[in-house]
Amino acid sequence: MNTDHQNPSGDRPESAGTDRAWESAMSRDFDARVRGLTEAPLSLDEVKGKAVRIRRNRRIAAAGGALAVAAAVTPIALVATSNGDADTDPPVATNTAEDTTATEPDYIVDNTWHQGDGDDVALPDGDYYSAATIWDGQLVVQRPQEQDVSNSVTEIFDADGDLVDSFSSNQGVAVGEDGTFFAYISDGVLTTRSEATGGGGVPIADGFDINHMPVAATGDAACGAASDACTVYVNDGDGPARVYGSDGSDEAAPEGALKVSDATGSSVSLTIEFHERVPESCGGVYDVARGEMAFDQCDYQAQQISPDGRYVAAVPSYTDGFGATTIYILDAESGEPAGQWAGEGASITSWEWTTDGRLMFVAYDGANWHLKVLPTYDDGRGLDDVLDPVRGSDLDNPYTLIQH
Predict the structure, then answer these.
(1) Where does the pLDDT of residue 11 fall: very low under 50, low under 70, confident under 90, or very high at 90 and above?
(2) Dihedral sign of CA atoms 103, 127, 29, 39 in order
(3) Which helix or strand (DSSP H or E) is residue 242 part of?
(4) Which of 40, 142, 302, 321 is deepest in the core (most CB within 10 A)?
(5) Domain coordinates in residue numbering, the chain
(6) 236 vs 12, 31, 313, 351, CA distance in Å?
(7) Beta carbons within 8 Å of 218's beta carbon, 6+ residues apart
(8) How far apart are the C-alpha atoms of 156 and 142, rounded to whole Å?
(9) What is the predicted pLDDT for the residue at 49?
(10) pLDDT given for residue 283 in this prediction
(11) Could you check whether the bond before residue 105 is cis, i.e. omega within 30 degrees of 0?
(12) CA of residue 90 relative to chain centroid, distance
């Protein structure tokens, strides 16, 4: 996470750049996946340790999760939700799910990478990971830098857990739809890596600072090796999101989006402002082929699009406490509910789609951490607890979910 070009005139106080980076990191904290309530009195040393950890969490939290109190901006997407409660009749499904081969969800817990085939691979001991994704069968993770927690260290591990590469970067890594390439920002340069480039990094744009975060990427394995092979969506803490292409293009995000949550080759989950609805800001899903919004609404924050493009994860647009208390699955074509979970007294802190089309999420109930998977209603599989609850404080989230 990188170059600071916030004081071009030279007459701005030196602390301004630091304050701005801190404010940007604080705003990213509203997307953080770790929140809660401490339960027991702490010693002075424990208080100091907690303070350092809290500062880290507020500066390197991954994008896309929990909401601020009474958030004024509402993301939406091609999605649908339904009630996942066992004693409630869900709405009639409009789609028939294709047969899928169930696999175990993959995630990181206790420095162990639990893979979808059931294998457990040990990772080096160290600080917690703030983000994780899969690239070409390898695990790409991010963790805070020891000496500059506003930046991250990106590490690549092979399938056996051996470290392949490590480098400094901004928070945020965007992997292509087919997993053959990924994008990151390092030293102010937006860079892509793919097997087509020999696994090395290829720059496609520059001029970025700590406020910029890559969040989604579309295209194919030729990204970086051929023009017009991929695009990368980048959120800017100081302005609208933009889209950068490997052909050198630099364009505003669809509909002047303030924020992009996810993107595929056919649709984009985004947040926009409808000036005719001021002071309400809303979002939706943009249909790439039609060049227009598929639909918009103001009830949900639309997040990650499912691997098959049929659904979108979503959380309520507004909350008045700890974080999102309900997680939704919305139908990508109708925007109607197709899945839902709400736990009494629980807050949802993070979520990602599994490769077999279920929504995996982490919930904290004030004392225990829960890892669950939620299928769509027409899937036929019920809500599952992946593991037994893990007791811990709000700062002790044991799970890092893996983006697909």
Answers:
(1) very low
(2) positive
(3) strand 239-245
(4) 302
(5) 14-401
(6) 21, 14, 22, 22
(7) 176, 177, 230, 231, 263, 264, 265
(8) 9
(9) 36
(10) 75
(11) no
(12) 28
Tokens of 13: 């106080």
Higher pLDDT, 373 or 93: 373
Rounded-to-integer distance, Cα 158 and Cα 33, Å: 25
Residue 169 DSSP SS3: strand
Task: Classify 61 as helix, strand or coil.
Answer: coil
Report the amino acid identity of residue 209: D
| 286's tokens | 């943009």
User: Whose CA is closest to 32, among 1, 68, 62?
Assistant: 62
Token pair recorded at residue 274 = 């409808």
- Is the pLDDT assigned to residue 138 strictly greater than 70? yes
CATH code, 14-401: 2.130.10.10
Mean pLDDT on 295-302: 84
> Which one has a higher pLDDT value, 172 or 42?
172
Cα angle vertex 290, ends 282, 311, to 5°?
Answer: 55
Burial class (CB in 10 A: 0-12, 13-18, 19+), 159: middle
Report helix, strand or coil for 324: strand
pTM of structure: 0.75
**Mean pLDDT over all residues of the chain?**
76
> What digits encode the pLDDT tens for the residues 105-130?
899 999 999 998 889 999 988 778 98
First to last CA, the chain: 22
